[in-house]
Amino acid sequence: MKHRLSILLLLVSYAAITCGQIVFPSPNQVEMKKGKLTLRKNIPMYTADTTAFYVSLLRSEVLRNSSVKWQSNASTAHICWMNDPSLPPEGYKISINPKQMTITASGERGFIYAVQTLRQWVSGPAGKLTFACADITDSPSMQWRCFMLDSGRQYQRVSTIKKYIDMASLLKMNYFHWHLTEGLGWRIEIKRYPRLAQIGGSVGKAEEQHGFYTQEEIREVISYASQRNITIVPEIDMPGHAEAALSAHSELGCFGLPVEVPQHGFTQNIFCAGKDEVLTFLKNVLDEVCELFPSPYIHLGGDEAPKGNWNKCEDCQKRIAALNLKDSHDLQLWFSAQMANHLKQKGRKAIFWGDVVYQDGYPLPDNTVIQWWNYRGHKDLALRNALKHNYPVICSSNYYTYLNFPLTPWRGYAKERTFDLKDLYLNNPSNKACNEKNPLILGMSCALWTDDVVTERMIDQRLFPRIIGLAEQMWYQGEPLDFTRFYEHVLQKKEWFEQQGYEFGPALKSEVPQDYKWD
């Protein structure tokens, strides 16, 4: 075993010498050239906008706060920012020769991604920064590249949310799906209904399960993300996963009774679809959500909503009869359509989990987007049904984009709910679906659910290094490297990511020690 490890380390060292700079996700075109550009203190720089965030990001993360001397002429600068409207909105070019670096994009998004590439390209200490000479041309493969964090089951500090927004931008993702409501916690302040957060934010019993985000904190996070080309998509789950909300407002349930909050899984206690006042309440909540979040997309959940209470509820049964609906699943579709239409009036699109399209029924409006997730339970049923009905689709199959699934069994995760970097790199159903190039498939999302009390200190080792493989699939347009070579590059970059504050866990099942503790 030690002999194999020595050979692998030698291969990695060789890769570092022969493969040039390694960047994740890989740029689409890199033409290495002879020489290097060395920048010392007081760097001459040219840009049309010295106040742009991407300039300050370059200075803090690449130039390491070296001083800058602004130039009025591009020819006298060592770093030049140039606009080219012909480039794709998220594309960029970097041209480095021994005398000058030119960064070209059509706008802020491309410039941000150019900086994220340069963060991995630069070498040397502050005061003597070195860039290998090259021409880089880059743009994404998918329009939707997303990371989802579950703050419903576990509450994370605002600083932690920002850490993973930084991570998403570094890996050139452009959406951050923020799961804000769950049976174990309602995390978003709603001014009209303060009990939702005050009571619903404190129903959990485990570590890091109490708390909510004020609207001021949410605006701060949205602004922070926007600077980094991240759109935050909030999720307000309905009608299921509602136990925290029902703890604060029991009248929103079918029978108006106090509910028990499950520490694992979910219960029959969901929002009542038969009461007009429940729909009004939830629309009022969405009004405040839309006032807070500028995102064109609002996620309305819709998964794992058992209908036992609806089947017994007089109000729900009256609604089914009055609307001539087929059953309680049809009632959920009608309920979902009411909420989606409310968002449509505000110019927003509604995202639903794939559960809503397992069966045909009441039609959803044309602002509907389906997020396919349950490959483990239903294979690609939701994907195919959504495409059949011309709904746009986000691919986030639990095999293999759910990064809460560990590499080896842990707590509620049995062997069949495990996977490693090689599994996702070679066999990710979401990536295979995106490679169909169906225009209705928007792209891919990966997720960190916090089931079984995944606290803040546990997050990094679940994400890294597997999320690097997913980011590569979301961004890179070229022919994928074979896995062995890709993994060598990951190992080569491990120290760099850890210097950025992201701790690696094991990459392969074969690497996990028998006594490894995921918590």
UniProtKB/TrEMBL annotation:
InterPro entries: Beta_hexosaminidase_sua/sub, GH, Glyco_hydro_20_cat, Hex-like_dom2, HEX_bac_N. It catalyses: Hydrolysis of terminal non-reducing N-acetyl-D-hexosamine residues in N-acetyl-beta-D-hexosaminides. It is an enzyme of class 3 (hydrolase). Keywords: Glycosidase, Hydrolase. Pfam families: Glyco_hydro_20, Glyco_hydro_20b. GO terms for cellular component: membrane. Its EC number is 3.2.1.52. This is beta-N-acetylhexosaminidase.
